Amino acid sequence: MYKKLFTREIKIDTYNKKQYYSELVSKLNFKNIDNYSNKSIYDLWNINYEDIFLAYRFKVLKDWIFHNEKYSSTFIKNLNYIIKILDVEKYLNAFESNYIEHYESIIFCKSRNIKKLIVDFNTNLNEEVWFKFSCSQFIQFNEKKEPLFLNSKTIDIFLSNQRLIISTPVEIQSINWKDIIIFKLQNNKIEIVTKFSKFYIISIEIYEIYVSVERICKIINIKL
User: Fold this and answer.
1) Where are the domains of the chain?
2) N or C terminus: fewer CB in 10 A for the chain?
3) Mean pLDDT of 128-146
4) Tell me, what DSSP letter sits at residue 170?
């Protein structure tokens, strides 16, 4: 998903550049980065090879991410700390910043307090609605496996302790958690298979939706 992130080209086309790069490799790597600060890291700096120094710091960052990446508050806290040590924050591109924001958003969804939302549709007995997300497309497949697109510019996904609710200005649909056989994350969408039909949810908040459903399943003690 993020193969090219945190990568900068390193051109080593002279003997002196090779020597300098070898020195960096011998002194700095993803395992010992904690031994440095954002000041002491510049003990390795060479004014003649600033491009190599920057590219190598990104290499260390990428190696660290590869060995530590997980959806946890510890990971995102340490990631921001490593970025600060390497002093590369001002060099991050938009995709790399989005990567960090993505993880921060997921961690927020995993840890934020659950509160009962006030909604403008009828709820069931003992039902509490806990989450709301925007949805760009909701697709239901008919008996012939043909996709039926929900025709609305505004689609909201609500998650309650009993069901997943699809809301538009003109209609409300819902899927009970107990009816779901498959609930699978696939790139930019979630596949839902029930006893009766198959659905796709497509959203820019797809990971947040998935993580929030996981939280609900743990609370109500069901497995999807």
Assistant:
1) 15-111, 129-220
2) N
3) 88
4) S
pTM: 0.71
The Cα 158–Cα 124 span in angstroms is 14
CATH number of 129-220: 2.30.29.30
Distance CA 185, CA 201 (A): 10
Sheet bearing 129-135, strands edge to edge: 129-135, 155-160, 163-167, 172-176
Percent of the chain with pLDDT over 70: 98
Orientation of helix 73-86 relative to helix 50-68, angle to 10°: 170
Q: What is the pLDDT of residue 3?
A: 53
Beta-carbon count within 10 A of 129 CB? 19
Buried b (16+ CB within 10 A) or exposed e, 118-128: ebeeebeeeee
Q: Are 64 and 7 in contact (CB under 8 A)?
A: no
Alpha helical stretches, state H, 4-115: 15-27, 50-68, 73-86, 94-111
* C-alpha–C-alpha distance, residues 51 and 34, integer Å: 23
